[in-house]
Amino acid sequence: MDTRKRKITGLLLCLLSLIILGTALMAGGDEPNDTFGESLFSIDREGIHRLDPQTGSQEVIFSTSGMYMVQFIMAPSEALIAVLITEPGFTPPGAVDYSVFPRNHMEIIDTSGIVLAKLDADVRKFAWSPDGTKIAYIAGTYYEGGIEFITTGVGVFDIASSQTSAINKDFPHKALNGYTGGEFKINWARHDGNIYLEDMDHFGGAYCYDPDAGRSMPLARQGIDFSPDGTYYRETQDPEGGPRQGTHIFLTATDENITDRLIKRFGPDWDRVSLSWVFDRGNCLHVIRQSNTSVKVKEHWYEWPVVVNVLYDVERDSVVREITWPISRWTAGPDKLVLEKDGKFEILTYEDVYGK
Predict the structure, then answer these.
(1) How is residue 120 annotated by DSSP?
(2) pLDDT of residue 92
(3) 3 state SS of 117
(4) 58-77: buried (b, 16+ CB within 10 Å) or exposed (e) per residue?
(5) Of 324, 218, 327, which Cα lies nearest the Cα of 274?
(6) Apex 88 CA angle, 85 and 93, nearest 5
(7) Angstrom distances, CA of residue 43 to CA of 50, 59, 282
(8) Cα 182 from chain centroid (whole Å)
(9) Virtual CA dihedral for 266, 272, 273, 274, nearest 10 degrees?
(10) Per-residue confidence at 30, pLDDT binned at 50, 70, 90?
(11) Which residue(s) pair with 233 in the sheet?
């Protein structure tokens, strides 16, 4: 009797295993969509859109009447979205210049579009803290057709408390303290937790601000666009001293210019190369380079674009993945690369590329 029970129990367990396996196979299917049910997000002037990549359905989750969406960046946690919004200025009838200049402000929403916090400052550039709880920003007024940009504040905005703390006085830089300035970059680096600012225009210079110590220090170089682990940084420069063009990659510790090997690999037409760091760790660059080649069709020669679109590991000096699908306008998060082709999506993460 015990033997019969054991056989029946074994058969039932076997049948249950087959049912579970069959269900898993049916759920997997042949669908090349690698989104795992994640929502995707995009922006246009009218609002923030959310897409279900499995069904193709989309909706506007956030919009504001009479204002324009300028930019949005998801937090590293992917739970919050910072939205930069512009309120249009006003030009009197028959006039050329603004009587009221356009003004930005920032709103923090969750992935359902619910507003959680608002930063009432004329934000121009901003960056999330590595833990996704704060935002470092540069605020100021852009006087179009006149004296250009004047910084009115550099600060840190705490999402939970909606409190701001000004840090511009910690930077001994004219353009950060009420003088006419130019274009700035800001980066809250994940490898050391410091805030970095770089003047891309009039005065030059780059600074590092330690939020814990509450003090800043000038850097002996330009370039604050670090690889995720901080080993490398990008610098945009012009050796002639004019408007800086071309991208150079340096080792953080030694300032060794490794750009020559990138040029050797991807070609000398450096002005037409787009580079950006990807993923939440490592030293991987997304490289897009376009050049033209001559193609003869029925006795006529035509210029035909040739595009190199790859993921390149700077430390290994090797291409770790060739990208054949177009880059999507939708995003799944700051550390993911979304590809789209014929209505299908693929999301690339560090683990997808490196397998660990």
Answers:
(1) -
(2) 64
(3) strand
(4) beebbbbeebbbbebbbbbe
(5) 327
(6) 180
(7) 9, 11, 28
(8) 22
(9) -160
(10) very low
(11) 226, 250
Tell me 90's DSSP state: B
Are the beta carbons of 184 and 199 closer than 8 angstroms? Answer: yes
Name the strand (E) or helix (H) holding 339: strand 337-341
Q: How far is residue 38 from each of residues 126, 210, 222, 261, measured CA to CA in Å?
A: 25, 35, 38, 37
The model carries a pTM of 0.78
Spatial CA neighbour of 342 closest among 332, 328, 322: 328
- C-alpha 53/C-alpha 38 separation (Å) is 7
Nearest to 86 by CA among 112, 105, 64, 62: 105
User: Residue 167 is encoded by which pair of tokens?
Assistant: 């840090």
Tell me, what amino acid is at 16?
L
Closest to 48 in 3D by CA, of 36, 38, 39: 39
Q: Which two tokens stand for residue 201?
A: 């225009």
Of 25, 50, 49, the residue nearest 37 (C-alpha): 50
Q: Look at residue 263 and tell me whether its pLDDT is greater than 80.
A: no
Q: Of the spans 6-20, 25-39, 134-148, which averages the highest pLDDT?
A: 134-148
Cα distance from N-terminal residue to C-terminal residue, the chain: 50
Distance, in Å, from the CA atom of 278 to the CA atom of 319, rounded to the nearest integer, reads: 14
Confidence of residue 66 (pLDDT cuts 50, 70, 90): confident
